[in-house]
């Protein structure tokens, strides 16, 4: 069997399709070049019971240890995807990849952890968390949760504290778009930013002006533009730039760190660049689709082809892609996600007569590592150690799980990939591991190949075959107050004293 996982389809038998996956819990990866964000070195990596216990040259071991030869290859931390939607109910349907199929695809592409967005149930965070816990029961890799905030009252505020202190969630997402469903007001965003700050949780925004998008959509429909291209035309970059600027300024007003998800345009990127230059703690996350695609597919006369590219914010016209790559290579943007949110052709066809009904989302969880390598490293824009930083380490730092994740260090979890820079990859909808029937990267080829994926010390991807066990995945709790919060209290104190001095002068003068 070639590039499909063994128990594809329904039912998930509790077997591993005949594999006794890495029969020993001891593993030695020999002779590779170990890549970390901070350095590269030729060394062996020795793993016991899911933990890295030694990283040094010429490690000698007993016979019961499974050997993997990595000579001439890179050994690096498994990818961490900060932005996915598995089993998400959205726009009247549910994403076709769940916590098993999406994760299987991820592992085949060298990603060993993802962070998914819990959507509250009737505004309740606790109910949302319970629902996602259930969805995630079939997991086969590491996962964590962000939580969306979709309304505001005392109970939401209280539940945010429960999420942070008891449930291992340290980030909350605010949708400034999707009017009528997930969208929040500026008033709510402000309250949410204040609450995030007090809890040491990271505020994340989907930055598009949802009111203006709504108007833009009406404009297109009035003009008779109902096809997928209308989606992009109705929500141009200026609306992403506006919302990004607004969120950044509100975060500055509150003095709390901000994370802008799926930065798709020069407009948004330049707002982030400006804020960072001024010293503000703003993180910008481009996604693979924004980095390597342009909007040309949206104009394909074939609906199925065009609709597969519909996501929000939209994939922009050529030029934005290169600018986002440059921003990533210079540190203006810090890490790469996917926004993996798959709907098949049947689901996409809900919007055959009206682009507003096309479920928004594209694939990418399996393709991210290969496409980022090919686009950023092979083109000479970043180093191999930078690759580790933007696909794994920086995500682990931002969400406060470094160096347990995001590093090949003694004591770190053994989530490891062996990457062959001299091999090659090819992407196709028929060979990928996602359940969806299309792929926005269909036909792409490039240099480099994830040959082995190890998660929690178990080899789960080798020789183009997956050995995944539903239910073997691990929920990773993420503690609050990441490094982004360092110095926030000092800045607050400075601001207060800067206010008090002139006020005191004013009162003593009068
Ligand atoms: O089109 C997208 N991005 N779908 C997923 C939901 C979101 O906005 O992240
Ligand atoms: Zn098999
Ligand atoms: Zn979004
Ligand atoms: Zn998303």
Structural class: alpha/beta
- Number of distinct helices: 15
Number of beta strands: 21
Please give the radius of gyration in angstroms.
Answer: 23 Å
Q: What's the architecture of the domain at 85-373 in CATH terms? A: Alpha-Beta Barrel
Q: What does the largest sheet look like?
A: 8 strands, parallel
- Uncertain regions spanning at least 5 consecutive residues: 1-23
CATH superfamily of the domain at 85-373: Metal-dependent hydrolases
User: Termini distance?
Assistant: 86 Å
* CATH fold name of the domain at 85-373: TIM Barrel
Strand content: 15-25%
The helix content is: 25-40%
- The level 1 CATH classification of the domain at 85-373 is Alpha Beta
Pfam families: Amidohydro_1 (PF01979)
GO molecular function: dihydropyrimidinase activity; metal ion binding
InterPro entries: Amidohydro-rel, Hydantoinase/dihydroPyrase, Metal-dep_hydrolase_composite, Metal_Hydrolase, Metallo-dep_Hydrolases_sf
Keywords: Hydrolase, Metal-binding, Signal, Zinc
